[in-house]
């Protein structure tokens, strides 16, 4: 059950509301605060302030009730995509030489920029995983619609999330059938042609499935409009959480300005 379907409305107040799991907070507020958090953290440049932002993200993780080890492991998977950029940045950014490797000089400025990017990315991604990643797709779609997001974009997001796993299963079935017919990939035209047929067949089956889904939705009275099952309401715990997080972000901005002018 999602937030929208269950209709939970337990009143939380005081510090008990701050200790409540993030999943019980208003989804609209969580989306807005996530966007504000990302904008503020991306605008920071001081390493000490960015480290504090990462600490704030870890605090949000503790409040969310998510398993820390599994969540940090998923965040480490994201780091694997940018690790090469971070390793090469000291060698591509001019500045004071730190050391030389195979004739290439690594600069201190490049190293600090790499650390800055790593802290920023980890702080933002961890906050997104904590505040929005715990949200059910249907709840997120309803919350985005309540925030006046264009309806077609909401529909596109919800259908993408719903059917991306269906397409993956279809791909697995087609790959299994190719293996049963003796297909072994290699670097030849037969392999390239076979993968082309695979992609084409997936597109054809996706179009056929979309037509069946549209017909089924029309039979159930779908008119292209999102019908909210429950109206979202801000509670005292939501306001307390938003004010506390907003104060923390204001503190980060103050610290950034203070370090920049000192």
> How many separate helices?
10
So what's the overall shape?
Answer: flat
In order across it, which strands form the biggest sheet? 1-2
Q: What is the averaged pLDDT score?
A: 79
Give a structural overview.
With 262 residues, the protein is mainly alpha-helical. Helix content is 73%, strand content 3%. It contains ten helices and two strands, in the order H-H-H-H-H-E-E-H-H-H-H-H. Strands 1-2 form a two-stranded antiparallel sheet. A hairpin with a 2-residue loop joins strand 1 and strand 2. Helix 4 runs parallel beside helix 6. The longest helix has 31 residues. The N terminus is likely disordered.
Structure in a nutshell:
The protein is built from ten helices and two strands. It is mainly alpha-helical and 262 residues long. β1 and β2 form a beta hairpin.
Chain-wise SSE layout:
Elements: H1 3-6, H2 14-19, H3 27-42, H4 47-64, H5 68-92, E1 97-101, E2 104-107, H6 108-131, H7 137-146, H8 151-180, H9 189-219, H10 236-261
Antiparallel strand pairs: 1-2
What labels would you give this structure?
262 residues; mainly alpha; two-stranded antiparallel ribbon; 10 helices; 2 strands; 3% strand; flat; disordered N terminus
């Amino acid at each position: 059950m999602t937030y929208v379907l269950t209709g939970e409305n337990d009143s939380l107040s005081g510090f008990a509301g701050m200790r409540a799991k993030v999943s019980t907070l208003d989804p609209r507020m969580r989306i807005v605060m996530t966007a504000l958090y990302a904008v503020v953290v991306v605008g920071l440049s001081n390493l000490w302030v960015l480290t504090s932002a990462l600490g704030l993200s870890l605090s949000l993780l503790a409040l969310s009730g998510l398993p820390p080890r599994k969540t940090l492991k998923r965040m480490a998977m994201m780091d694997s995509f940018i690790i090469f950029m971070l390793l090469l940045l000291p060698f591509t950014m001019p500045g004071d030489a730190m050391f030389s490797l195979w004739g290439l000089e690594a600069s201190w400025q490049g190293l600090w920029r790499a650390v800055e990017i790593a802290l920023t990315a980890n702080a933002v991604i961890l906050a997104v995983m904590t505040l929005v990643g715990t949200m059910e797709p249907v709840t997120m779609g309803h919350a985005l619609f309540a925030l006046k997001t264009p309806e077609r974009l909401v529909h596109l997001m919800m259908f993408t999330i719903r059917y991306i796993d269906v397409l993956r299963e279809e791909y697995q079935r087609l790959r299994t059938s190719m293996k049963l017919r003796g297909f072994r990939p290699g670097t030849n035209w037969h392999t390239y042609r076979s993968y082309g047929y695979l992609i084409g067949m997936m597109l054809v089956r996706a179009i056929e499935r979309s037509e069946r889904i549209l017909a089924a939705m029309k039979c159930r009275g779908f008119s292209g409009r999102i019908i909210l099952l429950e109206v979202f309401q801000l509670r005292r715990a939501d306001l307390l959480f938003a004010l506390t997080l907003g104060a923390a972000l204001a503190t980060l901005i103050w610290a950034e300005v203070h370090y920049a002018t000192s």
